Amino acid sequence: MVIDLHSVVTPSAVSPRAPFRRPSVAKRVAVTILRSVGIFVPVFVIATFITFSLREISGLSPAYLQAGDNATPELVAQIESEWGLDRPFLLQYFDWLGSVLRGDLGESWYNGFPISELLFDRALISLSIAGLALLIGVTVGLLLGVLAASRPTSLLDRAVTAFSTLISTMPPFIVGVLLVSIFAVGLGWFPAAGYAPVAQGIGPWLWYATLPALALSLDTVAEVARQTRVGLVDVYRQNYIVGAQVRGLGTRRIFFVHALRNGIGPTVALLGLKFPALLGGAVVTETIFGISGYGRFAADSAERGDVPAVQGVLVISIVIVVAFNLVVNLILNRIIPAATRGL
Q1: How far apart are CA 83 and CA 74, in angstroms?
Q2: Of 94, 62, 92, 97, which is closest to residue 80 (Cα–Cα)?
């Protein structure tokens, strides 16, 4: 058998393979932001269009708020003309959208005040309580999840799972009533109603915000505990964790450097869904605790038929939810680099 030496490819003839270069942090962040913006723009346009369509669907008019039962057809037409409601629907929408992009949410049909001013302070109240609820939910949920994952199938694991299942079935309004009955009325540790802004100090703010935040946080505690437990149990079965243990790496290093970083991804992704739920739950919670926040303003505006106010609430909600999901995506791409490659 004759071998043609000229046909044999020598190692020197093979072009060296280009080394893999991980994208820089700045590049990953830029790609994530661009992707999020690409998703945000159509979502925002569609959501605002549906939001603005509420008036057409509801058939409500500012004339019935201003003139009441004495509204004649002529007076209704006059008031609607003053508000620009006699123009074509699409023209009204694009004018309203342009105002929204400039930060102008219009004026209330109920009192004529700028909705942006009415919403600003109330949104800060609701966001501060929802933020505290999220902090409680993440902190307690992570601790419970780590405890359960440290002893899989043990009595501790079953107790954490049972506790998480129990609190996840309790509605916030029931939890709120129980908290007020025990810690406000019974023990007197916290006020039963009211709110103190952060500007008055962290202490007074916490004194008023703790019970509402606890009432909102229980479902987040349960979900974070479950997701953390499942993620960590799965990670500790992976070969790279076993290899790290065989190499004699310390337990803390394995947990914080390898296990937690790779197992916490589903938990972080879950927060993108939980934060909107916290804002939605604020309607009931703020009513129970007598807080004039974002949710209560939305409920009162809807009851009065103040469509521009309801539209303003929905627009702010859309922006907050999308912005929070952008933050979640940035965190995911930071702690799990594979997420930037779509893996």
Answers
A1: 14
A2: 62
Which three-class secondary structure string do you get for 57-78? HHCCCHHHHHCHHHCCHHHHHH
3-state DSSP call for residue 114? Answer: strand
CATH of the domain at 82: 1.10.3720.10
pLDDT tens per residue across span 43-77: 788 888 888 887 777 777 776 666 666 666 777 77
Give the DSSP letter of residue 291.
-
Residue matched to tokens 């609701």: 126
- In a domain, residue 7? The reply is no
For residue range 187-242, list pLDDT tens digits in order. 888 888 888 887 788 888 888 888 888 888 888 888 888 888 877 777 777 776 76
Compute φ and ψ for 107, nearest 5 degrees.
-120, 150
Query: Which tokens in the block code for residue 170?
Result: 């309790």
CA–CA separation, 54 and 256 (whole Å): 49
| Half-sphere exposure for 227 (CA within 13 Å, toward CB) | 21
Question: Is 98 domain-assigned?
Answer: yes
Question: Which helix (H) or strand (E) segment is 16 a member of?
Answer: none
- Residue 325 domain boundaries: 32-341
Residue 139 lies inside a defined structural domain of this protein? yes
Radius of gyration of the chain from its Cα atoms, rounded to whole angstroms: 27
Report the number of distinct structural domains present in the chain: 1
CA–CA separation, 324 and 316 (whole Å): 12
Planar angle of CA 94, 100, 103, nearest 5 degrees: 150
227 is a domain residue? yes
Q: Own/partner pairs for 245-249, CB < 8 Å, 24+ apart? A: none
Task: Compute the distance between CA of residue 53 and CA of residue 208 in angstroms, rounded to an integer.
Answer: 38
Instruction: Return the axis-axis angle of helices 265-288 and 307-335, rounded to nearest 10°.
Output: 150
Q: At what angle do helices 115-150 and 294-304 cross, to 10 degrees?
A: 130
Q: Give me 167's structure tokens.
A: 């609190």
Q: Percentage helix, strand, coil, to 5, in the chain?
A: 75, 0, 25
SS3 state of residue 160: helix
Residues contacting 206, CB < 8 A, separation 6+? 132
Question: What is the end-to-end Cα distance of the chain in Å, rounded?
Answer: 48
